[in-house]
Amino acid sequence: MYNALLSDFSPAAIAASGQCFRMRETAAGWSLIAGGRYLEIRPGDATDAFVFSCTRAEFDAFWRAYFDLDTDYAPFRARCLKRDAYLQAACRYGAGLRILRQDPWETLVSFIISQRKSIPAIRRAVEELCRACGAPLDPGQAERRAFPTPAALVCAGPDRLAECGLGYRAGYVYDAACRVHSGELDLKALADRPTDQLREALMEVRGVGIKVAQCVALFGYHRLEALPVDVWVDRILKQHYPGGFPRRYAPCAGVLQQYLFYYARCGEG
User: Fold this and answer.
1) Is 211 marked active-site?
2) Is the pTM of this model over 0.85?
3) Strand bridging mode 136-138 / 37-43
4) Could you read off the pLDDT of 91-129 as tens digits, one per residue?
């Protein structure tokens, strides 16, 4: 176990923010599977205290970067215009929310699955995919499985993928797996491309439109300027920003979008 004092860190906000689908609330706190690792988090005995089910070395080697803990999020919130009362409220409500540094492959597949699904439905489909095609993390915990590799999804085939609750998205996921497995789509190499070229390359995959590409850019490549627009965010923009999202917000539009999404979904009213 590792006990840590972490300011501006809210597992509750992160788990509910719609950016990842394998982090969930438990009776004791939160659980998460990422990078082939299982983690439990529970509140500590003091404000900003948390207990992680890993060693300090494991936390520093993987989880610190995954939770983006070396980034100061206060300057992002400070960009909020004083007259922007809605975003001001969202930033206050969402303080502690961070943009996770997720694996691009898992992010690509997860957001292909996410289309026209609620967050609970996305979580169920992702977990079913992992149960069907992912490798066990621990022989004694067969239900804990890593996210499937491209090779595993190619081997499964589109019909088996459809049985995991993917529906029509099974063909899209299979296409992505084939492209990545063959090397036609090199997700690692895309990290070196400008964001516009990154999005264009991702949109060559069947079923990947601008919204999914923006999600992968933001959550899989940490392009904080990427602004995914789903039903929630589209509604927010139309109601509160009819003249467009202020240019001042552009460098961290993805971060501010997360505050807005989380506030609209969980905090407003």
Assistant:
1) yes
2) yes
3) unpaired
4) 999 999 999 999 999 999 999 999 888 899 999 999 999
